[in-house]
Specification:
mainly alpha; 13 helices; 0% strand; globular; membrane; EC 3.1.3.9; endoplasmic reticulum
Length: 339
């Protein structure tokens, strides 16, 4: 693997030197590929166009990110920003590379979570849009456009992750391929209309199961916090090492979103039926609400409280999107029609 890692470092150096003027673009792209964006951005935008597609996006985002965590625990992938120093292979010539505020993620590197979740979630959007265009135009060329854009998005997210030294090229390739496969497989079985007990059991099950797996691996002498120590050691700015990039943050986010999806369908089975104009208004208000929910500062100590609040925050997200905001809009628009 040393040869693969080394070639990846030189590739990242070349990429940074050739495209440094596009640094802000790569930062934006990497934020678009952040798994959190699937919950806070892609899910609400998709939901207000197609309820089933929105539920599918949220379901696949949670499952694919959780599977990514499990893969990382077993594959032990290095990250470029710490491997340069840890490898001891660059004594004669240090690569001229730079870190960024989104570089210092604390989980293992393989496969790329950004690429994997992007590949899975955007497959739902792409296939839905492609089917819609074909049903309206019967044009194979026009319906293929979303798939071309999908591939370009995966490439852009992968390049951005290599550019900021968060991943090696083979990690983003593995993440992208796995994400596409998950998107195709998971989109065939969507838990729309399932009882609340199903989601409660699923949420608590993968939470407890993952914690038991973590404890079991630690009992075998496998330290799952090894990557956190390396991130703190080699990150050029201590404040760039954030608790919300830790593996348990993604786990609690996924479990919270799954329970929230079940609660939202329990409170309002079938969702609110809104015309296009109220839907657009709902989307605008929802986007503002989720923006402020995401910006809420959470106490990082004690860590148990932090993870509990992350869980609760993502239980709320589906309520805002599927129940509270569209319900409020329905109340006022329905009342106005009656008047």
């Amino acid at each position: 693997m040393e040869a693969v890692y080394t070639s990846g470092i030189w590739m990242a150096e070349s990429l940074q030197q050739r495209t440094r003027s596009h640094e802000k673009l790569w930062q934006v792209v990497t934020h678009m590929g952040d798994p959190k964006a699937a919950f806070l951005l892609v899910f609400p935008f998709t939901y207000f166009f197609s309820r089933r597609a929105g539920i599918t996006v949220l379901w696949i985002a949670a499952i694919s990110e959780w599977l990514n965590l499990v893969f990382k625990w077993f594959l032990f992938g290095e990250r470029p920003f710490w491997w340069i120093g840890e490898s001891g292979l660059f004594v004669n010539r240090q690569p001229e590379v730079y870190q960024f505020s989104s570089t210092c993620e604390t989980g293992p590197g393989s496969p790329s979570g950004h690429a994997m979740v992007t590949g899975a979630v955007w497959w739902v959007v792409t296939s839905s849009l492609g089917s819609f265009l074909y049903s309206r135009t019967h044009s194979i060329v026009l319906s293929a456009v979303p798939y071309v854009l999908y591939v370009l998005l995966l490439i852009a997210v992968g390049i951005s992750r290599v550019f900021i030294l968060a991943h090696f090229p083979h990690q983003v390739i593995a993440g992208s391929i796995t994400g596409v496969i998950l998107g195709i497989v998971l989109s065939r079985r969507v838990p729309e209309g399932r009882p609340l007990l199903f989601f409660f059991g699923f949420s608590i099950g993968i939470l407890i199961g993952s914690l038991m797996l973590q404890a079991g691996l630690q009992q075998l002498g496998i330290d799952l916090s090894w990557s956190i120590a390396l991130a703190k050691k080699w990150c050029s700015h201590a404040e760039w090492v954030r608790l919300d990039t830790a593996p348990l943050s993604s786990l609690t986010r996924d479990c919270g979103a799954l329970l929230g999806l079940g609660l939202a369908q329990y409170w309002k089975p079938g969702g609110w039926s809104l015309p296009w104009a109220p839907r657009a208004l709902s989307l605008a208000i929802t986007s503002m609400g989720l923006y402020h929910v995401n910006r809420l500062p959470l106490p990082v100590q004690p860590q148990g409280l932090f993870y509990g609040l992350v869980y609760f925050k993502f239980v709320i997200v589906p309520q805002i999107v599927m129940v509270w905001v569209p319900g409020l809009i329905h109340f006022f628009t329905h009342k106005k029609k009656k008047d």
